[in-house]
Amino acid sequence: MAYDQSTDAFVAFERVQKSYDGETLVVKDLNLAMPKGEFLTMLGPSGSGKTTCLMMLAGFETATHGEILLDGKPINNIPPHKRGIGMVFQNYALFPHMTVAENLSFPLEVRKIGKSDREAKIKRALDMVQMGAFGGRRPAQLSGGQQQRIALARALVFEPELVLMDEPLGALDKQLRETLQFEITRLAHELGITVVYVTHDQTEALTMSDRVAVFDDGRIQQLAPPDELYESPQNSFVAQFIGENNTLEGVVKNITDGLAHVQLDSGDIIDCKPVNVSKPGERTKVSIRPERVEYNKDRLSPDAHTLKAEVLEFIYMGDIFRTRLRVAGNDDFVVKTRNAPDQVRLKPGQQIEIGWLPEDCRALDA
Amino acid sequence: MADATQTNAGASGRAPDDASGQAQDSGATGPVLAADGTPLKASLNRALRAQKLRALALIAPLLIFVLVTFIAPIVDMLFRSVENQIVSETLPRTVAELSDWEATSNTLPDDATFDALYYDLFLASEYKNHTRLGSRLNYEQTGMSSMFRRVGRDVGDFGDLYLDQFEDLDERWDEAEPWAALMAHPGYLEDAAEWRESRDADRIDPRDTPAPRFRLAPGIEDLLPKTAQAYTHYAAFMRTEEEETADEDEPWTLVSTMLYEDLMAASAADIAAYDGPMADALQTAHAAAPDFETMTRKAQFLEADDEWGNLDNWATIKVYSPSYTSGYFLTAVDMKLGADGIVSQPEDQQIYGLLFKRTLFMSMVITISCILLGYPVAWLLANLPMRSANLLMILVLLPFWTSLLVRTSAWKVMLQQQGVINDVLVWLGVVADESRLIMINNQFGTIVAMTHILLPFMILPLYSVMQTIQPSYLRAAKSLGATPFTAFWRVYFPQSVPGIGAGSILVFILAIGYYITPEIVGGTSGTFISNRIAYHISSSLNWGLAAALGTILLGAVLILYWAYDRIVGIDNVKLGG
Predict the structure, then answer these.
(1) DSSP 3-state of A85
(2) CA distance B244 to B370
(3) Which residue intervals define the domain ABC transmembrane type-1 in the entry (chain B) (predicted)?
(4) Residues of chain B found within 8 Å of residue A87, distances taken between Cβ atoms
């Protein structure tokens, strides 16, 4: 997603800070710019400040410092009902005393839209989420998934350009969640709306978003498209938080031509790509994805550094094999291999040698 | 909601088909059977019976307590509102005679009725329950109480006229033993003598061993029927009330009067044929009786109190002679059961309609005041952070924990003309010292004090309902473009209506029956129907009318409850959770 931040940012946070008690900052110096039509996910553990950011954007919380811009205009002093932002809540927040159609009619009525127009829009919105036959029902008569579809339709029915979603699928079971993930992304792209989506589920973030902002400790740790986030984490928090990850600790020996040699605490030397390290002698955490570890020596380059490993556990998971190894004193080193016909099945106690391509092994901050 | 019911109805409508389908599948046409061959329903009932019995045993103590101390007294009280046996029990003969008499005939009842009245009242005055009857009838017709009290004093002397003339013929007519010898069975006299002897020797306690039951002498009932009846009544009275035997005292003058009537009716041959005790005295008396000085009972009654010549009094006795009456209820709605049917009370005596209307109106005003004052407080309670909410909750509950009397008295101190509020207003110069506001002993005082007292009953249900309304509803409404007011009015308020309903029912029903506060701060214009009920229970002792007023009040509450259920739906009332 290459774009020029200064000209076509649709939503922008500029040096935004937020404190509830005047002592600690929940959001620290947030800078973020989104182009129109982007699906951006705020991902992070609870308490990382992602929901607070969303609430500031919606207008339910005010920023202690900094500026929030919508379509180039500051919105800090605009009350929520004048911002024209659609919002979907985790608990759906469908009005229980109104039918589904009345719920959808509500945003249109407060906008003084005529009856026939309203009915057409409601019908279109309900059809959009495949709930056309449920207009007369009450929310309590719908299942969780159906309720969330209605909530989605309600947030879209008045055709906002920006829609905020606060963990909308958090209360649903896994299968339903996956179906709805797909539908939400489909709708977002079809309608060309800009979406800010908050979740703590990294799979959701990776599968749905154009870009993901990983939050921790009130800051954006990394803002990148999903593949970049997974394959090139910028720091050890992101590496740990996104996907499964093996960590080895050590000290940088030397850095030459984009290749670093790291001496692990066990004494072994490995090849890595320097990301957050710049000079020899720095402590570092080295991150390798489990599926990038290789124990078939034929597939490694001849001059690659290898490590001795002992197989502790072999788990058959159907499509993949998950092998737990002891590597350089680390008992939780995991290797995932595809279940292919020629794949070796390791046995506990077996001694093997493992290695990897240097670019898959990233030397991050300690 | 309606859809849900339809869906359910649809589902249950299908269920029987499904069940029969299953039965056909399994090849059986009868009811579904359990594993041991008994019908499944019976088997299920048996399994649940122990459970049900245990549940019943758990609530039994409370159930019995409530039945005995609450339901039974209420039913008894309600029953009093129609019960009217006192007239027919006290004046049975008069009531029977009056059945042929019409007040519209404009003539006094015939002599037979007065004779019956004499007999009834004589007995009533001996048993001393004529005054109770007088008080009862006085509710319907003023002056009847004194009429009965006065005649009760005199009725015992009516018979002296005949007794004196019998006595002039023979001294024995004024003595106990000759009378007993004439009237009583010899066997009774023996038993009586024996019983007296035991009593006088303190061998028995007359309260534990009453005197022997009286038996009439053989044949005397045919000879002197009325005398025998009167003497039997006398003997029964002696036995139960005086704890003596009949031959210990000379009989009532009623007996002498009856003897005169019997002698006038008896044939000389029958009297001559009698050869028992006192045969000679009887014959003498029979011969002399036609020459006796006599007087009609009507004349005697009119001489005692000329009110007995008032047709209205007689009409009242007749109208209230049945065992059950609608009279109390009619009085409670400012009507009256007159000789010509149901009529309105005179304008100046219509007080209950006004009181009922006032009670309903003021309860409504109090309920509305409670909603207006309680809603914002409940909203604040539900939306403040926990700590501040708890503090506020204590402030709300504080009046709850203070005695009702103390709170009401405090309002008295606040509101009276020399009270705190007036003093402050005068000090501020808002009102002049000589025109201090009258805020107590009127409707205003009652409304202020009761609103304050009943406010927690509005706030608590409101609060518990509001707590369940998630703040995200308001946020959602605002994010959808509603102004804060629209969001409140269209999203928050409708969801809090069940709380308003619950609070209103609670406050209104409590208010409609309130007694202490209106009594203390209500003066004359601010009292409720309950104050009138209390007056009839404790001061005027007209329990029947109190019961009728209470029944109407209960009925009004039930009707309102029913109407509320129809309009709002009682399922929508939430007292918590």
Answers:
(1) strand
(2) 68
(3) 356-564
(4) 475-476, 479-480
* pLDDT at B276 (0 to 100): 85
Residue A160: list chain B partners with CB under 8 A: none
Query: Which residue among A59, A95, A154 places its CB closest to the CB of B473?
Result: A95
The domain ranges of chain A are 5-236, 244-364
The answer to whether residues A197 and A170 touch, using CB atoms and an 8 Å cutoff, is: no
- Matching residue, tokens 């006290």: B90
Q: Is B6 in CB contact (< 8 Å) with chain A?
A: no
Tell me if A60 sits within 8 A of A52, measured CB to CB.
no
**Does domain A244-364 bear CATH number 2.60.120.200?**
no
SS3 B83: strand
A203 close to A33: Cβ distance less than 8 angstroms: no
Out of A59, A137, A154, closest to residue B480 by CB = A154
pLDDT in tens, A219-277: 999 999 999 998 888 888 998 888 888 998 899 988 888 888 888 888 888 888 888 88
Structure tokens that stand for B104 in this block: 């519209």
pLDDT at residue number A340:
85
Alpha carbons B550 and B359: distance in angstroms, whole number: 13
- The b/e string for B18-36 (b: 16+ C-beta within 10 A; e otherwise) is eeeeeeeeeeeeeeeeeee
- B478 and A59 within 8 Å at the Cβ level: the answer is yes
The DSSP symbol for B239 reads: I
pLDDT digits (tens, 9 = 90+) for B227-245: 999 999 999 999 888 888 8
Please state which CATH number belongs to domain B352-572.
1.10.3720.10
Q: Are A164 and A87 in contact (CB under 8 A)?
A: yes
pLDDT of residue B16: 40
Instruction: Give counts: helices (H), strands (E), chain A.
Output: 9, 19
User: Is the Cα torsion angle A142, A148, A153, A155 positive or negative in sign?
Assistant: positive
Q: Which residues of A touch B482 (CB under 8 A)?
A: 81, 106-107, 110
Contact B480 A106 (CB under 8 A): yes
Using a CB–CB cut-off of 8 Å, the residues of A that contact B are 58-60, 79-87, 89, 91, 93-97, 106-107, 110-111, 136-138, 140-141, 154-155, 158, 164
Q: What is the dihedral of CA B377, B378, B381, B382, to 10 degrees?
A: -150
B476 → chain A, closest CA residue: A93
- For residue B574, the model assigns a pLDDT of 59
ipTM: 0.82
CATH, domain range A5-236: 3.40.50.300
